[in-house]
Each structure stands twice: as C-alpha cells, then as structure tokens.
Predict the 3D structure of the following.
Amino acid sequence: MAAHTHRLRNDAERTTLVVRVRRALMTRLWEMLCAAILLATAANLLCVAARKGLTVDESVIAPAGYYHLTARDFRPVSEHPPLVKLMSGAALYAAGASAPP
C-alpha cells in the first residue's frame, strides 16, 4: 500500500509540474506576442514619421503642453484633452526647451 501512495504522490507532483510548465509557456507566448505587436507599431510609426511632417495642431499643442507642465495652467488650448499635450510638452521639457519671455 505504501508503494501505491508513493506513486500517487509522484503522479500529483508530475501533474503540478506539467501545469506549471504550461503556464510558463503560455505566459512566454503572450509576452512574445505583445513584444511583436509593439515592434510592429514602432516600425509603423518610424515609417510614417519619415514620410510626414508636423500637422497643423502640433505647432500649437506642443507649446501648450509645455506650458501645462511648467505653469500648471490648463487654460491654453482647452478644446483638446490634456494627455497628448502633456506628452508633447514632456518631450520639450526633457529636451531642455525654455519658454519664451
């Protein structure tokens, strides 16, 4: 009877190991899929950015975002949500740009 209990324990351990390996493989698969999507998106962005220049709003949105970051005032260019403006302003801020007098 002891051999039968030992075999059941080994079967349970083996099943647990198989489940862990499957989970690890699925996690790795999803990570690789996400990385591939991000790389494809980045490649698309770089290809499009090389062909296109600034749009009409970008000459206004980026300085407004910089003003949002430095002065904490969200009144300029209030017709658009602040997220993209803040991202544009953060790039200017990181580049060391200064506000005009």
In short: The mean pLDDT is 81.
